[in-house]
Amino acid sequence: MATFKFELVSPAKLLFSGEVEEVIVPGAEGEFTVLAGHAPLVSTLRPGFLRFRNGSDDIVAFVRGGFAEVNEKGLIVLAEEASRLEEINAAEFAASISALEAKMSSATSDEARNKMAETVYQLKAVQAQLGGGGAAAH
Amino acid sequence: MASLKELRNRIASVKATQKITKAMQMVAAAKLRRAQTAAEAARPYAERMDAILANIAGKVAGQAGAPALLAGTGKDDVHMLLVCTAERGLCGAFNSSISRLARDRSNALIAQGKTVKIICVGRKGYDILRRMFAKNIVEVIDLRSVRALGYNNAAEIAQKIVARYEAGEFDICTLFYSRFKSVIAQIPTAQQIIPPQLPETKAEPAGTNTPVYEYEPGEEEILTDLLPRNLATQIFRALLENAASEQGARMSAMDNATRNAGDMIKKQTITYNRTRQAMITKELIEIISGAEAL
């Protein structure tokens, strides 16, 4: 299968850089799959799982907030937070959700509150999948 | 001349100081390595962000309806200076050189009749700037309680700035920080972040090879999302560079201090020995002349 260049970058580090066959990206308007030769595209991300295959390895990573850009050179995902599935600590994850909920109850504008509610909802969906073990994410 | 006891005390105290500066130097060296790794790890993100932004902004720039964060307000009356310094001193000229750059810039702007507002990140810069610009400082952001500098800290600062920008409080925002070149060279730098100065996009003739992007959701939603993030990224990069510069500056300052302390100990030890010998000689002379008188 044809491969293309894929990079997963967070502010803290470069998580992955190399040739892959297929990447499934959690776009803001739904998941999409990128294969070699994909048309140029820029999309924002929603919190969720990003899956990619290089050779026989299937790798799942959690991403939150950021962008994906596809161009003729390949795919770049810029995520504000990104970590391999096996590195996620369930307790910490739950703590980050409750922190956001606390922030939500003290939000001043409806707009900000709605936005946070949406994020919390998305994060909870991710958490449910996490609870079912990594296998559920595949 | 100082008595022997006084000299001994002075030497002991300089030795104690030397121990402290030596320890600080070693701590700074260890922290510097960590700060440098962090700064290097953050570089790819900032580079890719720049590339994407330049790509999209190149298409939108110049069009009517471009977001204000990108195009600016069209005026340059009110300048916001975001001055990033350290929370601690004892790091040579690090804090004062950043503050001096910011001070010169604000003096120049005031002379041109512009309004200057200052946000200080870090206590040290505030301490220096408030002497002259107490009226201009609108906010002080304290990062003292932050142990490991994260992207979140930068994102919070960016949010505050965007909120102020949207409230129409200023037209142009400039970021002041110290670029880390090497342990002995840190370059105080001013970088304009609102509106961002984009790298010149190569003027390619239309129709050749410029990919037509699809945007999901729309082009404008992406830009409004991307610009604050880019701001946060720039601030994050500045903070990391600053952290590395601070440790570098402290390391060389403490190295100098250790060396100076060593010189001082040497000098005082010589004085101490001379005084001691002089006293012995004096006592001998007294004994001999006493014996001769008999």
Notes on the structure:
The complex is a heterodimer of chains A (138) and B (294). By secondary structure, chain A is α+β, with helices and mostly antiparallel strands. Chain A has two domains: 4-86, F0F1 ATP synthase delta/epsilon subunit, N-terminal (ATP Synthase, domain 1), CATH 2.60.15; 89-131. Chain A has helices at residues 90-105, 110-131, 134-137, and strands at residues 4-9, 14-20, 22-27, 30-35, 41-44, 48-54, 57-71, 74-84. In chain A, strands 1, 2, 3, 4, 5, 6, 7 and 8 form an eight-stranded mixed beta sheet that branches. In chain A, a hairpin with a 2-residue loop joins β3 (22-27) and β4. In chain A, α1 runs antiparallel to α2 (110-131). The longest helix of chain A is centred in the C-terminal third of the chain and has 22 residues, at 110-131. Residues 133-138 of chain A have low confidence and may be disordered. Chain B has helices spanning 4-60, 68-71, 94-111, 123-133, 151-166, 219-293; strands at residues 78-84, 115-121, 137-141, 172-180, 186-194, 214-216. A five-stranded mixed beta sheet of chain B has the order 3-2-1-4-5, with helices on both faces. In chain B, 62% of the residues lie in helices and 14% in strands. Chain B is of the alpha/beta class and 294 residues long. Chain B has six helices and six strands. Chain B has two domains: 4-20 and 255-288, Orthogonal Bundle (Helix Hairpins), CATH 1.10.287.80; 45-198 and 213-253, ATP synthase, F1 complex, gamma subunit (Pyruvate Kinase, Chain: A, domain 1), CATH 3.40.1380.10.
Write out key terms for the chains shown.
heterodimer, A: 138 residues, alpha+beta, ATP Synthase, domain 1, 2 domains, 8-stranded mixed β-sheet, B: 294 residues, alpha/beta, Helix Hairpins, Pyruvate Kinase, Chain: A, domain 1, 5-stranded mixed β-sheet, 6 helices, 6 strands, 62% helix
